[in-house]
Amino acid sequence: MAQMLALSIIVFVLFVGEAVSIRTKAWIPSIFVSGVLFLLGYWTFFPADIVTLSGVPPAVAVMLIYLLITNMGTLLSLQELKDQWRTILIALSGIAGIIAALFSIGTLLFDYQTVVVAIPPLVGGLVSALIMSEGAAAAGLPALAVFAIVIYVVQGFAGYPLTSVMLKKEGKNLLTKYRNNELTLKEMPANQPGTVDKPVKEPRMFARMPDKYNTDFFKFFRLALVGYLAYLTATLLTPVVEISPFVLCLLFGVIARSIGFLERHPLQKANGFGFAIMALLLFIFDGLKNATPSMMLEILYPLIGCIVIGVVGMYIFSFIVGKLLKVSKEMAFAVSLTALYGFPADYIITVEVINSLTKDEKEREVLTSHMLPPMLVAGFITVTIVSVILAGIFVGFL
């Protein structure tokens, strides 16, 4: 198969998944549609190495992981996290609930390695699924390497409807309070979807350098350098303690932004974010080439079981912590559920629910100010930060 034909086919598959998600207002996840199409492709006419043929070999994917995770670190706003400390505690409690439930009940039903592989993708996204899939493959566990990807592909089906139900209940309660003059409009944090971006002055190490020299290549260079420093630090620490370089990329990204070496979201500003996500998605789906129909049947039981047990554990823990922090059980559970999908699904679902509850623009503003910031912060904490850290730790257990 010619390289450009291979690339055209698999990128078209990604587009179909995205189109279905848009059409169904994210009720059918794009990842699920694309995953099913890749499986059907591998079972019919796709060459097993179609992703490599298209020009995305493993070395390219690993390079992009370094850039993407370092870029994730630059998205961290310490002020927003400080303002949403209750949300963060509830989101973390939900993750703790998943871990506790799967390590207690899950290990009684499934083997230890299955539980270890399931947790990071279940509380995270693309990167954590990839880390666990690669780790399972390296440990000689091909079925679990596929399992890590499949649980990432399917988990949204549990998260989307449950979140919608919880947010609708929360929204109705907030509307009642607002109409009874018991609730006011909150100021929305800057630089969040749904708000007008306000210019935020950030420390810039290169403030004296003319902007015309801050080219795309200069942004890529700084991202790569920070990623290399993370890798070098992980290598130097190996004799003492083994830390995934990907976890350090996240930390180094935060530090690099705080000292002004990197700006916020440099990969997007360098026009590389979309390509990086595309290539990484293709590499993720490359892991499905080993998934035979019999293997899919084999992992179906632990797949459903892990998701159900994890969600129950999440609800119990988030309910308890939400009660202690005086946050409604509906909002607490919705915040925890962001771990199953992250951004942009957290934004899309919240906005859709708000629009379905009222046609009054002022009421929508009030609901948005109370519901959107915690949902976005929770999605960032769970999917972007905690899941990568957990994957870096759990991959060592295999």
Automatic annotation (TrEMBL):
Keywords: Membrane, Transmembrane, Transmembrane helix. It comes from the Bacteria. The chain crosses the membrane at residues 31-51, 58-76, 88-110, 115-133, 139-162, 217-237, 243-263, 270-288, 300-321, 333-355, 375-397. The keyword Membrane applies. Coiled coil: none annotated. The keyword Glycosyltransferase does not apply. This is Na+/glutamate symporter.
